[in-house]
Amino acid sequence: MRFMFIVKSSHPAEPTPALMEAMHALAQREIQAGRMLDDGGLAPVAAGCVVALDKGEMRVIDGPFVEAKEMIGGYAIFDLPGRDEALASAREFMQLHKDFMPGWDGTCEVRAIAGSMTKGG
Known about the structure:
Elements (H helix, E strand, L loop, with lengths): L1 E8 L7 H16 L3 E6 L7 E6 L2 E6 L8 E9 L3 H18 L6 E6 L3 H4 L2
Antiparallel strand pairs: 1-5, 1-6, 2-5, 3-4
Helix pairs in contact: 1-2
């Protein structure tokens, strides 16, 4: 099964060098094991935009987004045997934030990628 991990936080903060090093080591381990298929951090919201469709009208909204309460900071895509392994991996990732970036609050949303549950991975 493929899973997308989506990291969100209401505290936009640059990761500490120690956290970046720990995340890089974890990513390298997971890539070499064939479990992590892709990952990446996202640029600040000020550099982004939103294409919105509201009541049949389309508009483009340039960042930063004042109304945003949480921002997506990054993502990763994994190929794992199932939900239990995905949760264990997400917990390990969030533990790095707890250990190397005290005071940071955020979430790691774990979502199965549609179709991967029936294709066998």
